[in-house]
Amino acid sequence: MAAPTIDVRPARTRPHTDAGWLDSSHSFSFGHHHDPRNTHHGLLLVSNDDRVAPYTGFDTHPHQDMEIITWVLEGRLEHKDTLGNKGEIYPGLAQRMTAGRGIWHSEKNNGDDTVHFVQMWVPPDTSGLDAGYEQLDINAELDKGGLVPIASGKGHDAAISIAQSGAVLWGGRLRSGEVVAVPDDRHAHVFVARGTASLAGAGALAEGDAVRLTGAGSPQLTAGPDGAEVLIWATS
Predict the structure, then answer these.
(1) Smallest Cα–Cα separation from 45: which of 58, 24, 25, 29?
(2) CA-CA distance, 218 to 72, in Å (whole number)?
(3) Residue 122's beta-bridge partner residues?
(4) What is the count of structural domains for the chain?
(5) Is 91 helix (H, G, I), strand (E, B) or coil?
């Protein structure tokens, strides 16, 4: 059995795309940023930290055979797709799009302020599924503290389901000094979306930092003095 590993990836080391209207930092290879040594961690293939300027956004484009989860940190992002779904994603609203056999969608910022969000992709268990969409406001659950299952394929009472039985996305808006345990799985990906935190075995983490754990158990994560919003994938 391989030795447990804890691999800290500071925000400054992430590949970066600046398209004027889009400022995006990529945790893994994405678009023209390709590094064969950095294509995924466990089942997590994409984790993009995106900022979209006012009155701009992603025009209608296709996806296939992917579970896509969007988590907004600031602002509001309008979603439209070929299933007829239309609405605004805002902080605390969990959203999942199953691309399945194929779906086209757009994501637009129709407001005066920049939208900041994280978009994450995991592959489905089965290709060729029917395309689908699900969303749920979980602000009340987040306000209780601790970690909340945002998206799960493992049967959790999560906000949204995903067609991947080996993956769960946990989220938390942690208060100053609040301590949680990283969910134990073969792979865990801890992302500090806002604020600061410290992780046992990794040390201090700033906003945008990530930690990749492999077989590392369930170390404690402690929010910094101003709190932290964290997104944690636990996958096979």
Answers:
(1) 29
(2) 26
(3) 67
(4) 1
(5) coil
What is the pLDDT of the chain when averaged over all its residues?
97
Whether residue 1 has pLDDT greater than 60: no
Distances (CA, A) of 137 to 3, 21, 141: 39, 28, 9
pLDDT tens digits for 85-127?
999 999 999 999 999 999 999 999 999 999 999 999 999 999 9
Q: Cα separation of 222 and 199, whole Å?
A: 6
pLDDT of 232 reads 98
Residue 112 structure tokens: 């005066």
Report which secondary-structure segment, H or E, holds 139: helix 139-142
Q: Which of 209, 217, 160 is nearest to 188 (CA)?
A: 217
Q: Tens digits of per-residue pLDDT, 47-77?
A: 999 999 999 999 999 999 999 999 999 999 9
Q: Is the pTM of this model over 0.85?
A: yes
> What distance in Å separates the CA atoms of residue 131 and residue 129, rounded to the nearest whole number?
6
Separation between Cα atoms, residue 213 and residue 233, nearest integer Å: 10
The boundaries of the domain holding residue 112 are 5-235
Task: Give the CATH number for residue 9.
Answer: 2.60.120.10
State the burial class of residue 95 (Cβ atoms within 10 Å of its Cβ: 0-12, 13-18, 19+): buried
